[in-house]
Amino acid sequence: MTTTGKQIFSTLDADGTLTVEVAESTFPDPKPSQVLVRMEAAPINPSDLALLFGPADLENAEFSPGKIVAKMPEPFASGAKGRHGQRLPVGNEGAGTVVAAGDSDAAQALMGQRVACVPGNAFSEYALAEAAMCLPLGDVSSEDGASAFVNPMTALGFVETAKMEGQKAIVHLAAASNLGQMLNKICLEDGIELVNIVRKQEQVDLLKGLGAKYVVNSSDDDYMKQLRSAIDETDAFFGFDPIGGGNNVDTVFKAMEQVAVSKMTEYSRYGSNQEKKMYVYGRLDLGPTILTPSYGFGFTYAGWLLTPFLAKAGMETVVRMRTRVLQNLKTTFASSYKARVNLEEMLTKENALDYRAMRTGEKYLVTP
Amino acid sequence: MTTTGKQIFSTLDADGTLTVEVAESTFPDPKPSQVLVRMEAAPINPSDLALLFGPADLENAEFSPGKIVAKMPEPFASGAKGRHGQRLPVGNEGAGTVVAAGDSDAAQALMGQRVACVPGNAFSEYALAEAAMCLPLGDVSSEDGASAFVNPMTALGFVETAKMEGQKAIVHLAAASNLGQMLNKICLEDGIELVNIVRKQEQVDLLKGLGAKYVVNSSDDDYMKQLRSAIDETDAFFGFDPIGGGNNVDTVFKAMEQVAVSKMTEYSRYGSNQEKKMYVYGRLDLGPTILTPSYGFGFTYAGWLLTPFLAKAGMETVVRMRTRVLQNLKTTFASSYKARVNLEEMLTKENALDYRAMRTGEKYLVTP
Question: Nearest residue on chain A to B243, judged by CA atoms?
Answer without folding.
Answer: A293
